[in-house]
Amino acid sequence: MGVSGGNLMPVEEEWRRHLADDKETITRILRSMRRIAVIGIKTADAGGPAYTVPAHLQSLGYNIVPVPVYYPDVTEILGVPVHRHLSDVTPPADLVQLFRRPSDIEKHADEILAAHPAVVWMQLGIRNDAVAERFARAGMHVIQDRCLEVEISRRHDLSITP
Asked: Could you tell me where the DSSP H helices lie in 88-138?
């Protein structure tokens, strides 16, 4: 078991620091992100949190990049052109927000790993520990089973400058 630099954390356990679940780390992440790719975003007609959460974040000044899984004929969501793959998102997103069932997260893992966003955020009720470990081992921060909208609303001092 090796040790990393002056840190006493075993090398093989370093990836765990990317599993963000504490207030300070989440606040730091929220302060640094501006561009959010939303995998599984829904249309206004479909409604639900997969539409209302990104819509609210957009109203707060975040740059939302729709990456719908369904709706093959839809070309815009929230007035923004849709992207069918993360690899098409330029400039890249700071954060990838997932509105997918836990069992469907694996289907997006390779694409997310290739895009390598700073943060992968699985919405409230969404958790996949095996895939989260893959993301964390790749150096991405991972947040599971939390609502991005709620976490932002808890931090009233966050300000977005377009």
From this structure: 106-115, 129-137
